[in-house]
């Protein structure tokens, strides 16, 4: 008997297979990206020349890029030194505007269709800028970027856990409610600096209409997640150490402790940045990262970049890493991206437009 022609695969299967080979074409949504951790090496050089900053460890873009990545992946001390250099050149409105503009351009090139950029305005006041000046300059850069590339971009304002000015930071952020600032965050070291020390600032931000996302479950473990939830966190920055409150057997989560049950049951989104977690030595290899375990267990996982310069990453690399090492297929990436759309702090009109682009990209 002569076999007939082989059936052609369905449109969805064909499209997903093609997109798996080309993650750059998939629409992406970023909820956790630090402005001072995402500059282009060439921009760092240009801004240093403009302000007379002479402390850079390399004088060419390629060498500087390599240094930042090696610093980010060497130790916490080197990681912090790397930020000292980017912050050193980001002390003028022009520098903040340029950094924001280029961040969105780079995101758009990686297929990002919505991004929330975060930064700590207090870290940009070494010169003549105030916190409000820094926020306004970033918003200006993001507005210009949205006009150019059509990527809606919003701001999450960070206060630093180890500093005592969180109320002043919250007050500055509140002045820009409705103008592009959508969230308030606590960054910096989790261990020894619990979020509850900044409860008044968190309450000020929330009462004025800002959403709350708090770094937790990165530098410290489950206790930092408990603390963040008690302070009213709507999302968890990183949050991956929630895996420590679960039981894993045969490659899957088979039981959850009370904190994991709460995060899971309340559908608290996790802002997961796998490459950053690997660089900061949270996990020995990509295959050991729990992102796949958490996603398959039904946690609300989203993917982000955290610090693109220090981790030499992009959303294309983040997608590729989890696909190649964590059992994440294109359908899973679609689900994580839709999680991010639902968890975004933007208005409903923007969310609907972004959701439409995401849905169209994963047909």
What's the helical proportion of residues? 40-55%
Based on the structure given, which CATH architecture is correct?
A: Alpha-Beta Barrel
Mean pLDDT: 93
Taking Cα atoms only, what radius of gyration do you get, to the nearest Å?
Answer: 20 Å
Please tally the helical runs, counting DSSP H or I stretches of 4 or more residues: 15
- Which spans have pLDDT < 50 for at least 5 consecutive residues? 1-20
Strand content: 15-25%
Beta-strand segment tally: 10
Describe the structure.
- This protein has helices spanning 11-20, 41-51, 61-72, 76-88, 93-109, 131-149, 166-174, 199-207, 222-230, 258-265, 274-279, 291-296, 315-325, 330-343, 348-361, and strands at 28-34, 112-119, 153-160, 181-187, 211-216, 235-238, 246-249, 252-256, 270-272, 301-303.
- With 363 residues, the chain is of the alpha/beta class.
- The protein has an 8-stranded parallel beta sheet.
- α6 (131-149) links the parallel β2 and β3 (153-160).
- α7 runs parallel beside α8 (199-207) and α14 (330-343) packs antiparallel against α15 (348-361).
- Mean pLDDT is 93; it is low at 1-20.
Task: Reconstruct the topology from this structure.
Layout: H1 11-20, E1 28-34, H2 41-51, H3 61-72, H4 76-88, H5 93-109, E2 112-119, H6 131-149, E3 153-160, H7 166-174, E4 181-187, H8 199-207, E5 211-216, H9 222-230, E6 235-238, E7 246-249, E8 252-256, H10 258-265, E9 270-272, H11 274-279, H12 291-296, E10 301-303, H13 315-325, H14 330-343, H15 348-361
Helix pairs in contact: 2-3, 5-6, 7-8, 14-15
């Amino acid at each position: 008997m002569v076999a007939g022609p082989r059936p052609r695969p369905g449109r969805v299967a064909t499209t997903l297979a093609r997109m798996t080979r080309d993650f750059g074409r998939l629409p992406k949504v970023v909820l956790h990206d630090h402005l001072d951790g995402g500059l282009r090496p060439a921009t760092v050089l240009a801004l240093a020349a403009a302000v007379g900053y002479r402390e850079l460890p390399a004088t060419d873009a390629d060498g500087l890029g390599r240094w930042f990545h090696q610093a980010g992946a060497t130790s916490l001390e080197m990681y912090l030194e790397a930020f000292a250099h980017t912050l050193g050149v980001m002390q003028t409105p022009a520098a903040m505007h340029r950094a924001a503009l280029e961040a969105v351009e780079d995101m758009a090139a990686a297929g990002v269709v919505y991004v929330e950029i975060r930064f700590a305005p207090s870290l940009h006041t070494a010169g003549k800028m105030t916190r409000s000046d820094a926020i306004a300059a970033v918003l200006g850069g993001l507005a210009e970027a949205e006009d150019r590339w059509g990527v809606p971009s919003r701001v999450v304002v960070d206060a630093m856990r180890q500093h005592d000015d969180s109320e002043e930071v919250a007050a500055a952020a509140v002045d820009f409610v409705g103008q592009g600032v959508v969230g308030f965050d606590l960054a910096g070291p989790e261990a020894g600096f619990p979020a509850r020390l900044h409860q008044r600032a968190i309450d000020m931000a929330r009462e004025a209409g800002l959403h709350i996302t708090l770094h937790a479950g990165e530098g410290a473990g489950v206790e930092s997640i408990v603390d963040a939830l008690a302070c009213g966190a709507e999302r968890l920055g990183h949050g991956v150490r929630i895996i420590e409150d679960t039981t894993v057997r045969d490659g899957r989560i088979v039981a959850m402790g009370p904190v994991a049950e709460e995060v899971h049951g309340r559908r608290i989104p996790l802002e997961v940045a796998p490459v950053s977690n690997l660089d900061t030595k949270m996990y020995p290899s990509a295959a050991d990262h729990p992102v796949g375990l958490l996603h398959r267990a039904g946690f609300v996982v989203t993917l982000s970049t955290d610090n693109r310069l220090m981790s030499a990453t992009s959303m294309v690399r983040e997608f590729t890493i989890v696909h190649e090492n964590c059992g994440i297929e294109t359908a899973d990436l679609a689900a994580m991206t839709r999680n991010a759309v639902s968890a975004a702090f933007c208005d409903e009109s923007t969310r609907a437009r972004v959701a439409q682009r995401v849905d169209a990209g994963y047909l």
